[in-house]
Amino acid sequence: MDRALKMVYYDEANVEKDIFAQLSLAQKHFQGDGMPRDESATRRILDQIHRQSRAFAAVCYGYMRSKGLGVSEDLGEGQQWYREAAYWFHEEASSGEPISANNLGYLYAKGLGVQENAETAAHWFEEAIEYGSVAALYNLGVCYLNGWGVAQDDEKAIEYFERASDLNDPSAASVLAYLYLEGRGVNRDPAKSFEFNMRAARAGSIEAASALGYALGVGLGAERNIAESISWFELAASEGDAYAQANLAMYFCHSPELKLFNRGWTMLMNACDQGDASAKYQMTQILIFGVPHREPDYASALDLAMDLAELGHPGGYHLIGVMYEHGLGVPVDMARSASWYERAARKGSSNGQAALGRLYAIGSGVEQDNILAYYWLRMSSPTEGSQAQREMGAIHARMTERERQIAEKFVADNPGPRRGSFGLKPLEQDVFKAAKRRS
């Protein structure tokens, strides 16, 4: 789980801001990347950072030079500005300034203006905690979660995240939401995950807002509510979040209203232009199954799905399996379909797991096996009333008592793959029904 460390400042309302997230947003505004081009918004963000202190101004100049934001790109000069930032942060941290100690740790973690050193970074996060930095509690938790500069320890990581979350740190609450969703270091609890995401989103976490959009869209940890899902996705999308844009686009692209479709398609293109894999996955679904204002395009869909597969994206594997199962632009080939589903399943795709379980249940493309069918359907974490849950129940009913015992032991001994680094997948169509309609 490659969670981001954070360098912070506090705005006029004493609200924590992640400086590099803000600088990235400024660049998106400047380039019109995933949102309308707005140089005035870029200037507002940069001016707010400049006003903080000499150290923050130097970070700002370092980013601008390194990224070519409004100036010519010069990595060497960017590093010079980061070195100046490190000097001032060190001066202030040595005097007990908590934000500066945390931010100095960040520079050592990333090798900006100083020699990259994870142990030194963790040391400064510890110093910052002693001085009273909440952000450093989160950062040190990330270090323990990943074993960066300290021995990997989920228990200690959770302790630091809980301390930070109790002090209203949105990033810590967001990570706790992920851990409860995955059952890492804690018992899996989607409802508790939802609660932590709500806490984080209300405290300003854009990532958590996206997570709420997903959870409400599929009924994960809370009752399914499409209107609320759209609302949270819109909030995150307005901040340039490509994941939210991709999923929001799926809602709009399925609308019978041409205006909403056009809005969704534009949003999806913007997210794809940012290189967002979720957006490419969503676009692949549309090209396979079609929507009211766009017919299927199997050749383009297969190209996109193969691109995703080359990146190791489980959704790409799954959609290729769908195409081979139902003969969408390719010959029907159940053995090949099962092979792609298995790759998706082993990478954590719930749709891939459910599809593979279904093939084992009927013995199509693979040898019929009730135990493996039950296992993969169970791994897909089917929601109440879903097709996967009904199929799992049907398989369980026809199994012998001995098969049930073996299946439950197999599930216990093989907990299966975790999801991606954010614990979230793009919202998915009911692809089995969609494929049946096209077959």
Textual characterization of the structure:
- This protein is mainly alpha-helical.
- Among the domains are: 8-167, Serine Threonine Protein Phosphatase 5, Tetratricopeptide repeat; 294-438, Tetratricopeptide repeat domain (Serine Threonine Protein Phosphatase 5, Tetratricopeptide repeat).
- 68% of the residues lie in helices and 1% in strands.
- It contains 23 helices and two strands.
- It has helices at 19-31, 39-50, 54-67, 75-94, 98-110, 118-131, 134-146, 154-166, 170-182, 190-202, 206-218, 226-237, 242-253, 258-273, 277-289, 298-310, 314-326, 334-346, 350-362, 370-379, 387-398, 401-413, 431-438, and strands at residues 8-10, 16-18.
- A two-stranded antiparallel ribbon has the order 1-2.
- Strand 1 (8-10) and strand 2 (16-18) form a beta hairpin.
- Helix 5 (98-110) runs antiparallel to helix 6 (118-131), helix 7 (134-146) runs antiparallel to helix 8 and helix 11 packs antiparallel against helix 12 (226-237).
- It is globular, with a radius of gyration of 24 Å.
- It starts with 7 loop residues before the first strand and ends with a helix.
- Mean pLDDT is 89; it is low at 418-424 and 430-439.
- Pfam families: Sel1.
- InterPro entries: Sel1-like, Sel1_AlgK, TPR-like_helical_dom_sf.
- This is SEL1-like repeat protein.
What's the tally of helices? 23
CATH third-tier fold name of the domain at 8-167: Serine Threonine Protein Phosphatase 5, Tetratricopeptide repeat
| Overall pLDDT level | 89
Give the amount of beta strand, in percent.
under 5%
Q: What is the CATH top level name of the domain at 8-167? A: Mainly Alpha
- Biggest sheet details: 2 strands, antiparallel
Uncertain residue ranges? 418-424, 430-439
Class per helix and strand makeup: mainly alpha
Order of helices and strands: EEHHHHHHHHHHHHHHHHHHHHHHH
- Biggest sheet strand order reads 1-2
Taking the alpha carbons of the first and last residues, their distance comes to 39 Å
- Categorize the overall geometry: globular
Report helical residue fraction: 55-70%
Second CATH tier, the architecture of the domain at 8-167: Alpha Horseshoe
Task: Compute the number of strand runs.
Answer: 2
Rg over alpha carbons: 24 Å
Pfam family, one: Sel1
Protein name: SEL1-like repeat protein
InterPro entries: Sel1-like, Sel1_AlgK, TPR-like_helical_dom_sf
